[in-house]
Structure formats: C-alpha cells, structure tokens
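Sequence and structure are kept together here, with a separate record for every protein. A complete record is shown below as an example:
=====
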Amino acid sequence: MFPPPTAKEVVEKTVAEFGRLDVLVNNAAQQHMQTDFTKIDPAQLVSTFSINVFGYFYMAQAALPHMKEGASIINTSSVTAYKGSPGLVDYSSTKGAQISFTRALSNQLVSKGIRVNAVAPGPIWTPLQPATFPGEKLEKLGDSVPMGRAGQPCECATCYVFLASEDGSYVSGQTLHPNGGVVVSG
C-alpha cells in the first residue's frame, strides 16, 4: 500500500501529543556496500529507494497539512550526493535525489512560509557505519577527510537546530555540510 500508513500514523500521534507540528526531520537511510555495480539486485535497489527517498516524500506529505507558516522540513542527505561513493552507488543516488527533493519542495512551499533544507553529513559515527562496513574499512572511517577523522552526531546537531529555529528563517532550499572539511559544490 502506498503511502504506507506509518507516515500518517506518526504525524497524527505527534499532533495529538503536542497539538501542532513545526519541524519535520527526515532522517532514515539504509546503505549496502557493493563494489560491483552489476550486482546491485532489484530488491536492494527498490528497498534503498523506498527508505531513502519514498519515505521522505511520504513523511512530508503526511506532515504538510499540519504545518503552518514558519515551519521547517529538514532532510538528511550525505556528502555522497555530491562526490559519490564507488561502493555505494545506489545509496549515493538516493542522496542526490534527496537534495533535488529538498530544492524542488522548497520552491513549492516558500510562498506558504514553510522552509525546506537539508543537512549532508560526511562520515559520522552512527549505527549505520558498523552495520555497513567491514572492520578494516570501519577502522579508517573519516581518515580521508581533511580533518582526518569521523565526526560525532553532536557535531551535526547544531545544523538541524539552526535550520529548525528562527535563526534559520531566511534559509530555504539549502544544504549544510558538516563533513570534516570536504569542499563540495552544487
């Protein structure tokens, strides 16, 4: 069934509990290492896009009827949207789709006073990393960024707080990059 009832249920429970909905943070993803592009099977592709892209659409669609002027939608993307990752082709593709989704939805909602932005972290120590990478690759997580280390979730948190707050009231359609100093464009 599309969209899944989960998005609507989550939004309805939130509104019932708090009486309103001011901020939506889309932050769900899966990634699977696959160094041979031809071995990304259809089931993996559908699953990755379903969670990483379709889920963002469904949550925003469920939330919008409850959001008023001044509200904010923040989509979590990744540095891979800008530089790609040879072992994460399907994941990188979904992250690029999230950036395009952010920009397009921002253009549509700006006249309603609802801001839409993204955060595109670099290597961050989250449960997604050990679930994806083998030990030897995990040990080197973050070594390739200019700061020479992986970041911590708290080093991304201020990006979300800024975009959700009144301090970010003049920012929409943009992406913040807590990524250890990797210079990206686009």
